[in-house]
User: What shape does this take?
Amino acid sequence: MNNPTDETLPGMCRRAARLWPERPAIVCEHGGTTTTFAALDALMHALAAELVRRGIQPGHRVAVRLPNCVEFPALWLAITAAGAVMVPVNPAYRRSDIEHVLRHSGAQACIGDDEFIAEARALLPTVPTLAWVDGIDSLPRGSRGAHDAGLPEVRPDWPANIQFTSGTTGLPKGCVLSHRYWARFGRCFVEQGPHITAADTLLTAQRFSYADPQWNVALALQSGATLVMLDGFSPSRFWQQVVDHGATFFYCLGAMPTLMLKLAPGPAERSHLVRMVVCSGIPRARHHELEERFGVPWHEAYGTTETGGDLIVPVEEHAASVGTGHLGRPVPGKELRILDPDGMPVVAGAVGELCLRGVGMMDRYHDDAAATEFAFRGGWYHTGDLVQEDPAGRVCYVARNKDMIRRGGENIAAAEVEAVLQGHDGVRMAACVAVPDELRGEEVKVFVVAQQEPVSEQAYFRELVGFLSDRIADFKVPRYWELLAELPLTVSSKVAKPELLQRETNPPRGWDRNLR
Assistant: This one.
C-alpha cells in the first residue's frame, strides 16, 4: 500500500475490486445476499454519485442507521467517496439520543430505515443543519458511468466518521476518525496477530453502527477476505453460524464469551474452521476453559474508539499469557506508557493509567476542544484504564478510573443517564454506579432522591424506567434502583460515589427491574 489513495476507504475499495473482482466481499445474513468486491465498488460509486447529485459536499455529515445489510457499508464507502463524513447511529437510540447525535454532529442529511427516518423527520425543526431525510430505498443503484468525474480526490487525513462514544462526563462525544485511522486499524490484523489473507472468512455479530464491524470492512478490503455480517449475536446459534459460513476468524467482546460458556456443548463448536479468536476483555479466570472447550486460541486485544487498534498478544506470547489478563504488545506505530496522576511514569510493577500515542488515532472530539486537550494532555491519550506491568514485562488490566459503566460490551456514561433521569419532575437527584454482574461484567445501579416521598417505591421506579426507556437506549436504563433521602456529597458538592459503593451488597440492594 504505497499509493496514498490506498489509505482511503474508497481507494481501498477500488483496489480490492481490481485485485479480487469476483471474490465475495460481504455476505449478509439479512436478506441472504452475497456481494463481490466488484459489485461493492460499483454500488459505492452509484451511491456516491447520487449523494453528490443531492448536494452532499466534502465535509458534510450524513447520519445513517440501517440493519446489517450490504447497503450500510456500501453507503459508508459512498459517503466517504463523496468526501463527506458518516455519522453512524446506534439502532438502540431513541429520540433524545438521536437528537443529541444529529445536533452535535451538525448532520446535513439522514439516511436509514423507516423508524429512524420517522424520528429524524420529527426532529427537523430542532436540527437546523438538516437539509434532507430519506430512506435507503429512495437511493437509486445506477451504474458508475461518468459520475466518477464528479467525485473529489479523497485524502487519507480527511475525516471519514464522527463516531459517537460515551464520555466520562456529559453526553456522548463524537470521535473524528480519518481514512488513515481505518486503514491502520485494518492493517494491524494483516501485518500481525491473525495475519488475515484472501483465504480467510471474517465474521461479525455486532451492529454496523459500532466501530468493530467497520474495521472488519477495512480489513476485508485490504486483505481480500470475505466478511460475513450476522443480524446480531445469538449464543445458541453462533457456533453453527460460524460453521455454516466457514468463518476462520472473528472478534468478540463483552458478555459474548461468558454467554457461549453458559450453553450446553454442541457439535458445531468443535467442527469449525476458526484458527484464531481475538477478544477484548477475555474473562481471565475462564480463558483456559474457552480455549479447551472451543478448540481455538483466544488472543486478548486492546483498543478504543479514540485510538483504534492498539495492543494485541503476539502469537509467540499467547500460551504464556492465557489467564494472565495480558493486554498485548503495541501494534506497529503505537507506543504506550503507564503514568501516575501527575503524568509521570510509575515505578516498575506499580498501578497506573494506560496512555497511548502514535499513528491511526482519532483527530479530535468533534466541536469539543477542551475534552480533546484533556484526553491528549502531555501528548498522550489517557485511556482511563488502570494497568500494571508484571515481572515478565506484560501489561495487565487492573480496573478503570472513569465514571463509566461497561455493560456487556456497551459503554454507558453515568452522567448521561443521570442527566436524562433528572429531567423527570419527580426526581431531585440521581447517581449511577457500576455494580458487578457475572454475565455482563457490570450492571447499572441508580440511587434516586425523590422530590416527594412516593406512595409506592415500585410504582415510582416503574414510572422512571418508562420515562428513561422513551428517551435513551434500553441498555442504558439502570437495572437496580434504590431510593435515598439524600446523596452523600464531597466538600466540592459532588456526589461521593465511593461512599455509595461502600454500602453495596451482593446481590445489589434495591429494586431489580428484571424481576418486575
Q: What stands out?
A: The first strand starts at residue 24 and ends at 28.
